[in-house]
From TrEMBL:
Component of the translation initiation factor 2B (eIF2B) complex which is a heterodecamer of two sets of five different subunits: alpha, beta, gamma, delta and epsilon. Subunits alpha, beta and delta comprise a regulatory subcomplex and subunits epsilon and gamma comprise a catalytic subcomplex. Within the complex, the hexameric regulatory complex resides at the center, with the two heterodimeric catalytic subcomplexes bound on opposite sides. Keywords: Cytoplasm, Initiation factor, Protein biosynthesis. The lineage of its organism: Eukaryota, Fungi, Fungi incertae sedis, Mucoromycota, Glomeromycotina. Its main location: cytoplasm. It comes from Acaulospora morrowiae. It is found in: Cytoplasm, Cytosol. SUPFAM superfamilies: Nucleotide-diphospho-sugar transferases, Trimeric LpxA-like enzymes. One of its GO terms (cellular component) is eukaryotic translation initiation factor 2B complex. This is 6183_t:CDS:1. Belongs to the eIF-2B gamma/epsilon subunits family.
Length: 408
């Protein structure tokens, strides 16, 4: 007997693994490696959907969109989307999703082997037909450097199956002093764990049922506070969500300037291997790894008297004058004049730093110009094109100053 005509299509749909990457205008470069997770997905995924308007240009210009790429990238401009819920409702309306898929944020940096996570998700689905999602979490101290300050989560898990039976988002303000949990949880699960030592990696393995649930519940906006909490507290839906706890891999999300700094330092320290600068994951990169965790591209002009300390990245086109000292910093392609000290800073494209300046633990965005004898103390943020006001008469001795050319 001949096989059914649609059998080949069904097999193809099952074999193609899809991923939805939520991109945003806030996605910025980390230590020379942009945190767009296509590099993390290349060995696990066949089709990637960058959602929300912002990441589309970067996806089209990347090598992953070339004809020889193992990935098929489809960009979806959800111009009216204001939340993850809006994006998933848009996906449901377009009927792009036809099997289990990976859902992750575009500002995640991770070297997790997602194939193992996917296998575990499929095994759970074979024993629990109501399982619709697996949340990837990483075991870490509550005070870990990659945790966003003021944000944490409490996961209540079944000790044997890692089923998430309760989820609570904990914010700094107002301070939460208690957690309310249904007694039904204790009746159904004899052994549970209440965990505050898990970093939410913002990587989820979702079943095809997830987008329609967002459509049915139009008030779901946030994937955790609304969707996960709503599913776990609903007696009518009867769906289950699991956690996959990772111990021996790296995953973190750039949520703030604090996590931007922490993750960038981790990239330079090679905790994110193979996502490191000298693997040159982006087209046109030419980084070389040197002793002391120094990364330098070609076409760089360094004076003989300049000093590069540990954890320094120097991008192509950088020019560094005499007696410059740089430590723990990411330098894109600026001009740095003589007698300048830079420690723990991020110097972006087209920056010009004149003589005798000092910059400590700050960010200088594209095309910033510092006149001579300027001090930029720790925690300062100078936005793109700031130049005229940055002179020796206007020192940034006050910490955590934010300066831009337009009102903030």
């Amino acid at each position: 007997m001949a096989p059914p005509k649609n059998q080949g299509k069904n097999l193809e749909a099952e074999s193609v693994l899809q991923a939805v990457v939520l991109a945003d205008t806030c996605v910025v470069s980390n230590a020379g490696v942009k945190p767009v997770p296509l590099t993390s997905l290349q060995h696990s995924t066949d089709r990637v959907y960058p959602g929300v308007p912002c990441g589309c240009r970067g996806a089209k210009e990347s090598k992953w969109s070339r004809s020889y790429s193992p990935l098929e990238i489809i960009t979806i401009l959800a111009r009216e989307a204001r939340s993850v819920g809006d994006v998933l409702r848009e996906l449901d309306a377009k009927q792009f999703i036809n099997s289990d898929f990976i859902l992750m944020s575009g500002d995640v940096v991770s070297n997790i082997n997602l194939e193992k996570v996917l296998d575990a998700h499929r095994m759970r689905k074979s024993t629990d037909k109501n399982a619709i999602m697996t949340m990837v979490t990483k075991e870490a101290s509550p005070f870990h450097r990659t945790r966003a300050m003021g944000e944490s989560s409490i996961f209540v898990l079944d000790a044997k199956t890692n089923e998430c039976v309760h989820y609570e988002s904990v914010e700094a303000f107002p301070r939460k002093r208690r957690m309310v949990m249904s007694t039904e949880v204790f009746k159904k699960h004899a052994d549970i764990q209440i965990r505050n030592d898990l970093i939410d990696c913002q990587i989820d393995i979702c079943s095809v049922e997830v987008p329609p649930l967002f459509t049915e519940n139009f008030d779901y906006q946030d994937i955790r506070k609304d969707f996960v909490y709503g599913i776990l507290t609903s007696e009518l839906l009867g769906k289950t969500i699991y956690c996959h706890v990772v111990k021996d891999a790296y995953a973190a999300r750039v949520r703030s300037l604090q996590t931007y700094d922490a993750i960038s330092k981790d990239v330079l320290s090679r905790w994110t291997y193979p996502i490191v600068p000298d693997n040159n994951l982006q087209e046109g990169d030419s980084y070389e790894y040197m002793r002391g965790q120094i990364y330098k591209e070609r076409n760089v002009e360094l004076s003989r008297s300049c000093s590069l300390g540990e954890k320094v990245l120097i991008g192509a086109g950088t020019r560094i004058a005499e007696n410059v000292k740089i430590t723990n910093s990411v330098i894109d392609n600026p001009f740095i004049g003589p007698n300048v000290e830079i420690d723990g800073a991020y110097i972006w494209d087209g920056v010009k730093i004149n003589a005798n300046c000092s910059i400590f633990r700050s960010i200088l965005a594209n095309n910033v110009v510092l006149e001579e004898n300027v001090i930029v103390n720790k925690g300062c943020l100078l936005a793109c094109d700031v130049s005229e006001i940055i002179s020796s008469d206007n020192l940034f001795e006050k910490e955590r100053s934010h300066i831009s050319c337009v009102p903030m």
